[in-house]
Every structure is written in structure tokens, then in C-alpha cells.
Amino acid sequence: MSRLTWSDLLIDDITPDQFRAWIAPWAGVVGGTVAPAFLSKFGFWFLRRPAGAVELLDVFTGQLQQVADDYETFVREVNEPWWQEVYLLSEVVLQLHEAGKVPGPGQCYALAPHPALGGPNPANGEAVDPRFVLVVDVVVWQSICAQSLGVAPDAEHG
User: Fold this and answer.
1) Which domain covers residue 127, as residue numbers?
2) Could you tell me if residue 13 is inside a domain?
3) Is 1 a residue whose pLDDT tops 60?
4) How many domains would you assign to the chain?
5) Residue 90, C-beta contacts closer than 8 angstroms, at least 6 positions apart
6) pTM beyond 0.90, yes or no
7) Would you say residue 33 lies in a domain?
């Protein structure tokens, strides 16, 4: 396999119910009104703000940062190979596919252990051994990430 499709790199068919459940562990980090653009296959959120900005929630660090001033700029950048390598970890995803690890609908990759607990952080360029990557349900991985980073649970959901 030498090429990945969009469905190999991201999760973009997120229902409102899934969005509420999947983002709930991050209520202490993500405030205000947001809508999902998509998730990476490692569970990183790309969130749209009403004013147009797009933010990235890095589930390895718990950091929220703006990645584009407007959605049009974001879409242009998403189509660039360098952007896919940096933000969607396309090279790592390709290695995992070659190792036979392919998430199904509602699933993503999970690192064991989480980077906050000593596992590698591929977003920082650290090598990932496919033996330590699991395929899990997105809701499970989001919860593990938030707990690993000590994010306080949302009072409504936690």
C-alpha cells in the first residue's frame, strides 16, 4: 500500500450524539461554541469556531491551539502533504496500515502507554512501534487521553 485515502487519515462523519460524547472528557479544556471539522485517526480534534477560526486539540498534550484563521485557509492546508504528515501523522498511519492495523467506523489509534505516561509522542517525531498501538473506540481513547493528562471530568458527564 502506498497511498492513503481521506477515510484512512481522518474521521469526518461525526454525528451530533457522537460529538457530544467524544468531546465530553475535554469540557475543561474546550470552552465556548465549537463544531467538529474532523478528528485525526489518533483522536486529535480539529474544531471550528463560529467566527471561522479552526483549532486543534492535541490529545497527547491536552493543548488547544488555533491552526487557521478561517475555514478556507484550513481546507487549503489540509490538502498539502506536509500538513498531513504533521497534523494527521500520515507516515505513521501508513506504517500502521502496513502492519495490519486499520480502524473501523467510530474507531481510532491509541498509544499504549499514552505519551503523558511515558509512551512515544509521534506528533513530536518520536518513533512508534506498531506493537504498542491499539485500535479502540474513539470515545474510549478520548477518555483515556483526558484521564492520562489529568483533565477534570465534565460535571455533567463525569
Assistant:
1) 6-148
2) yes
3) no
4) 1
5) 4, 9, 81, 84
6) yes
7) yes
**Best CA proximity match to 122, nearest among 97, 83, 89, 80:** 89
Residue 19: Cβ-neighbour burial (10 angstroms; 0-12, 13-18, 19+): middle
For residue 35, tell me if it sits in a domain: yes
> What are all long-range contacts of 59-67, with beta carbons under 8 Å and residues at least 24 apart?
59/141, 59/142, 59/145, 59/146, 60/111, 60/114, 60/115, 60/116, 60/121, 60/123, 60/145, 61/115, 61/116, 61/121, 61/123, 61/149, 62/29, 62/116, 62/145, 62/146, 62/149, 62/151, 64/29, 64/30
The pLDDT, as a whole number, for residue 2 is 59
Task: Say if 1 falls within a structural domain.
Answer: no
**CA–CA dist 149, 89 (Å, integer):** 21
Amino acid at 97: H
Per-residue pLDDT tens over the stretch 76-108 = 999 999 999 999 999 999 999 999 999 999 999
